[in-house]
Every structure is written in C-alpha cells, then in structure tokens.
Write a structure and sequence with these properties.
Strand order of the largest sheet: 1-2-3-4
Structural class: alpha/beta
Radius of gyration: 14 Å
Largest sheet: 4 strands, parallel
Distance between the termini: 18 Å
Number of strands: 4
C-alpha cells in the first residue's frame, strides 16, 4: 500500500482530513486490518471505529467511515459481524457521520450485502462500496 494513503495513527489521519476539508475535499477514513477471527479482536476494532466516529463528529469533519466486514469478524462469526456493523451504522447515523461498507472480495459479497440490508431494514443510512473486479 502506498505510504501516501496510509497514515501512522488516528491523530495524523484526522489532521490530514482537516487539511483536505479546508481544500474542499471530503474524506473516507478506514482503520486498516483484515480477517479478524477472534471475537476480542473484532470487538477491539469495533470500539476503535466508535471512537473514530465520535472524533469525526466532534471535529465536524466532512468525512465518512469505511468498514470492511472481515475486520468485524465476518469470516469467523457472521452474527457477531452483523451486530457490530448495525451498532456502528446506528452510532454513525446518530452523530451524522456517513457509514460505508467496503466490498472486499467474492468471499465477503453475501455478508457485505446482508450487513447493508440489515442496516437499511433498521432505517439506517448505509453505502456499499462495490468493486467491479472481485477476486
């Protein structure tokens, strides 16, 4: 991954986003990590995302969060991942921070769409980032 798009920590990412917003550029923030299989890891990233949502709202950034279903434990525990995604989507909606699900690959298509449908059925706004070429 090019260093240009990866920042060392949340403070740097928020600062970078503020600078882009001053230029009229909207940002999408994602916490890097993939394929967490342990519930503790999925819950840890969930709490990191909650903090990020609150930071975006507190700073009034023009930014959304992007979540990969695998970081919420989607490859190991579908129900846990669905519940965590719904909670993140609800908190995002409550604070006015757009919520996006990032399509990762063929193995995650069904879960990603199920998460989006679950959020939408709950009356929560959600965006799905689709990929034209899924491997």
């Amino acid at each position: 991954m090019p260093e240009r798009w990866v920042l060392p920590d949340k403070a740097s990412a928020l600062s970078w986003c503020e600078q882009r917003n001053e230029q009229g550029i909207r940002c999408i923030l994602d916490i890097l990590g993939r394929y967490y299989r342990e519930e503790a890891m999925a819950r840890a990233i969930f709490y990191d995302y909650l903090a990020l949502i609150r930071d975006i709202a507190d700073r009034r950034l023009n930014a959304s969060i992007s979540v990969k279903p695998s970081t919420l434990g989607g490859t190991a525990n579908r129900e846990l991942a669905l519940n965590l995604a719904r909670e993140l989507c609800a908190e995002s909606a409550r604070l006015g921070v757009p919520f996006e699900l990032d399509m990762e690959g063929r193995r995650m298509v069904d879960l990603t769409l199920a998460m989006a449908e679950d959020c939408a059925r709950s009356g929560l706004p959600v965006t799905v980032a689709l990929q034209a070429y899924l491997r």
